[in-house]
Specification:
single chain, alpha/beta, 2 domains, 4-stranded mixed beta sheet, 11 helices, elongated
Length: about 280
């Protein structure tokens, strides 16, 4: 038998309920106030290591990982605002799930989070053991906990960048709103990673002419980089309508143009562009 003790009865009940969802062919579970008891039917040592520990590990991750991430966000990095906490938590999960690239560690993680927990359990767990779950987490899951801290740090970096980006976009929106349009319509063609500007009559605006339209104050007064090829000309011209032709709506600059100019942007595929001879 293994006896797992908890400081909070609610945690014991949650673990018991979660583990009861797994097949009970090789062990039997009981729940008693602050404790979960595991009784093994046969081959105890082999059963613990090859069957029970993987199930126990998955239950730990599902039940407690988000809570521990949130504790790191609040207690180690002092984020007190609940909305900020939740945004950072979601970003941390996006790094954990691989939706965002771990630009610090890349593919250097030799062991998954689950493997780190399993390794600690294999070094520790045996038949006849009675232990405090909280003590196990505190003293034996340091490497796993450090991995969670790593993901929170990534999430906070990303959160700060997104906040800066949103502030940057909002600032450009205000500049555009307070400027008189220099042209009513701009046709903007995005093709082969390049952007080409055309006026209302579909005459291309030469790069030198475009450069002359840029308000130089934009290039020196912004806390974030504003590129001189797309954003700076568009913000300087502040057109009433931007007809944007692209086949890559997820492109970063395309997204920023839409975020800044909002309802002024009309999105079309490249095939809609009037100068078909130019496109081909």
């Amino acid at each position: 038998m293994i006896n797992i003790l908890f400081q909070e009865a609610d945690d014991a009940k949650k673990l018991f309920d979660e583990m009861m969802k797994s097949p009970q062919h090789h062990w039997r579970l009981t729940y008693d106030e602050n404790a979960v008891n595991v009784y093994f039917h046969e081959g105890t040592s082999e059963c613990i290591h090859s069957l029970f520990i993987p199930v126990f590990t998955k239950c730990i991750v599902r039940l407690f990982e988000s809570r521990w991430l949130l504790m790191i966000i609040t207690r180690s990095f002092y984020y007190e605002n609940e909305e900020e906490q939740q945004q950072i938590l979601q970003l941390a999960h996006s790094f954990i799930d691989g939706e965002r690239y771990d630009y610090r560690m890349g593919k250097k993680c030799l062991h998954s989070r689950e493997q780190l927990i399993e390794r600690s359990l294999r070094e520790f767990l045996h038949d006849g053991l009675s232990f405090s779950f909280e003590s196990f987490v505190k003293f034996r899951l340091k490497e796993y906990y450090d991995r969670l801290v790593h993901y929170v740090e990534l999430a906070i970096d990303e959160y700060k960048l997104e906040q800066e980006y949103q502030n940057f976009v909002q600032m450009l929106r205000e500049i555009v709103a307070n400027r008189s349009p220099q042209m009513d319509v701009i046709h903007l063609l995005h093709k082969n990673e390049s952007f080409h500007f055309f006026d209302e009559q579909f005459s291309e605006i030469a790069p030198t002419q475009l450069k002359g339209l840029i308000d130089r104050r934009l290039m020196v007064s912004q806390p974030m980089y504003i590129d001189s090829f797309v954003l700076a000309p568009l913000v300087s011209i502040a057109p009433t309508v931007i007809r944007l032709y692209t086949n890559q709506v997820d492109d970063g600059i395309i997204q920023t143009v839409q975020n800044v100019f909002q309802e002024r942007v009309q999105l079309f595929p490249i095939t809609f562009f009037a100068k078909l001879d130019f496109v081909d």
